[in-house]
Amino acid sequence: MNNFYFYNPTKIIFGKGMISRINREMNHDSKILLLYGLGSIKKNGIYQKVLNVLMDNHFKYVEFGGIEPNPDYVTCMKAVEFARQNDVDFVLAVGGGSVIDAAKFAAISYFCEDSDPWQVITQKAVPPPKALPIGCVVTAPGTGSQMNNALILSRREVKQKVAFSHILLYPKFSVLEPDFTFSLTPYQTALGIVDAYVHVLEQYITYPTYSLLQDRQAEAILSTLIDVGRPVLERPDQYDLRSTIMWCSSQALNGALSRGTAVDWATHEIGHLLTTLFDIPHAQTLALVLGGVYRSQFANKLEKLSQYGRRVWHLDGSDVEAAQRSIDSTEAYFESLGIKTRFSSLGLHAADVVREVRGHLEKSDFKNLGERKNIDVETVCAILASRG
Ligand code: ZN
Fold this sequence. Notes:
This protein is 47% helix and 11% strand. By secondary structure, it is an alpha/beta fold. The protein has a 6-stranded parallel β-sheet with strand order 1-8-5-4-2-3, sandwiched between helices. Strands 6-7 form a two-stranded antiparallel sheet. The longest helix is centred in the middle third of the chain and has 23 residues, at 212-234. The structure holds zinc ion. The site of zinc ion has 5 residues, from helix 6.
């Protein structure tokens, strides 16, 4: 096991009716920025529930709606300006990963008085020494952003999607009310499950670091997601299934799995390119790319792939057979949830995708991907070419 720090201060407030508890988590003198997405919370009643708590407890608040999926820099900067004009001192995100990531961006950018926030999140400028505190009311849990210190932001005008993390960006609390996810469509639900599943795999399928507990924790989350994935699509208002997915998604990316281990975010990095260039939903890109990365890096990942195959998919045979079939089983699982694993299923030609991606990467400062940093531009193109 490698050396590590582990720090996660986010308080989880889990369960039915627990939204009322946010009253105890925010300073009553605070002026709250209520941040949300494109308005689904107004249709499913969650907006009113949050407002009731704020009004019953005489909190001062202002609201900013309209955060889009894959939040854009331009929209988020409007939120920052709005926050500054209104002199807020707390950000309450009500939504899924996009809204939470926008809240994190606003929280740190609020104090970027002498520096450009884009320079900060692209790590070309020093972050400010403080950020606004953040709270989350989670309506779609797949990204795991509710329990970590990372954000992902798109800047469509320059075709970039970047990840940034900072110790100041852990939410102070996150409310996980499973019934707040009942109104997600089967497609949205399946995307969330695939996202969480791939988060676990990317911290697990690398090379052995003798992190025995972390391996078993990863396998537990993967097995649990397999257990509940199909059933929740058939019974979307089954509380315990929704509870399980919410907690799996949060555990999948709260930092515990990757402590002391090697990680490989290549599937996410390549996936971000597909979202940027083709506007494909985040988790859909992961399902398209993952099997290509694993077949491309098969020899490097053989030990962990075969372990995954045996322990999670109960496969037998040689190591090579178990490893190969583990990739097939993963793709079949994604397909069983309705998430496609081939470009042709989405009406795209792999050759067109490769041409666009290559052109984009040749103009960017691409850094090699994978736990061994051996996935270069040519390998990315070969992976995508194999996904036709
Ligand atoms: Zn993700």
